[in-house]
Amino acid sequence: MARIAITDTGGLDFTPGIAVLDAAGHDTILLHEGEGLLTHLADLEGLIVSFCRIDASVIAAAPLLKVIVTTTTGLDQIDMHAAKAAGIAVFSLPSPATEEVATHALAGILTLLREIPAAREASKCWDFKKIPAPTRISELTLAVYGMGRIARALVTLALPLFGRVVAYDPYISTEAWPKTVGRVDSLNDLFQIADVLTLHAPATLENHHLVNTRTIELMPQGASIINVARGELVDTQALIAAVQSGRLRGAFLDVVDPEPPEADAPVLHEPRIVVTPHSAFFSKETELAYVMLAVENLQQIFE
Q1: Tens digit of pLDDT for each residue in 161-185?
Q2: Does residue 186 belong to any structural domain of this protein?
Q3: Phi, psi of 89 (to 5 degrees)
Q4: What's the CA gap between 148 and 169, in Å, rounded?
């Protein structure tokens, strides 16, 4: 059967997936963060990739390669043009973690708006006056950038809490737009009314550093930003400056740019920015699903 390399695990436990591949007669090798990949490329027929970069030079050095599957919903790490030119099939995952990411985003929103980090510190002296007074959530507007599956799941959870939910997504038709969500026609309009801005879109050249000094200045004083999508959507230095100056109330980030950040990265040490380690997808159920769906995608090619 086929010779397969798992370039990197992305922190997932690949044991059950490797067992399935072995049982099917495949020769599977597990690499650490892509180390040694170049020495195996000549006879590889399949790759399972988490975050390892597969560029044109890797593809050119793998003449037998038939398929690349990822354990991610996005394909930012794959040179799709080179893969297509080489006739290599590429599969990403559907979204097995929609529920997890949506609830993680809501947890971040509530963490910021109810001042949980400050309240935790205030508990040490048992003085609630040490907590910046939160605004009642039903008085606020939640602004959503992108209205894909995760955003829609979050909106369902957030609608009973917020006074208003609005969104911007130029790729969704009027007929398909959720009736319970207000629609704005420009990014400037979205930023101007966003007491809480939550980001739900892939990274593209067009939206690189969508959140920047200029767009932050459009937001209401004391607004908050949530990013469980892609780190490249946010200019981290501009975000930190806005939080430190008090222009923003705070931020909740499950993704940063670059990843992983250095241990001394300022974004990890700003008290009013809560960071989680790209873990929004993570649950007992999704850890298994990400591995097994990737294996199923790969086996389609070799059946």
Answers
A1: 999 999 999 999 999 999 999 999 9
A2: yes
A3: -75, 140
A4: 9
50 and 145 together in one domain: no
- Beta strands (DSSP E) in 231-299 are 248-253, 273-275
**Does one domain contain both 5 and 77?**
yes
Residue 258, domain member (yes or no): yes
| Percent of the chain at pLDDT exceeding 70 | 100
Active-site residue among 230, 232, 249, 272? 230
> Which listed residue (33, 217, 259, 285) is catalytic?
259
User: Tens digit of pLDDT for each residue in 104-161?
Assistant: 999 999 999 999 999 999 999 999 999 999 999 999 999 999 999 999 999 999 999 9
Please, are residues 248 and 216 in contact by the beta-carbon 8 Å criterion?
yes
Q: Side-chain half-sphere of 226: how many Cα atoms within 13 Å?
A: 29
Q: Confirm whether 259 is a catalytic residue.
A: yes
- Position 34 pLDDT exceeds 90: no
pLDDT at 220: 98
Alpha-carbon Rg for the chain in angstroms: 21
245 assigned to some structural domain: yes
Per-residue pLDDT at 95: 79
| pLDDT at res. 255 | 97
- Residue 278 is among the residues annotated as catalytic for this protein: yes
Domain that holds residue 177: 95-273
Tell me which H or E stretch contains 55: none
Q: Which of 26, 104, 209, 278 is catalytic?
A: 278
The answer to whether the CB of 184 falls within 8 A of the CB of 218 is no
Amino acid letter, 85: A
179 and 53 within one domain: no
Q: What is the pLDDT of residue 33?
A: 86
- What value does the mean pLDDT take over residues 65-83? 93
Domain check: are 62 and 120 in the same one? no
Q: Please tell me whether residues 30 and 155 are part of one structural domain.
A: no
Residues 26 and 159 in one domain: no
**Reduced to 3 states, what is the DSSP secondary structure of residue 162?**
coil
My answer on whether 162 and 259 are in the same domain is: yes
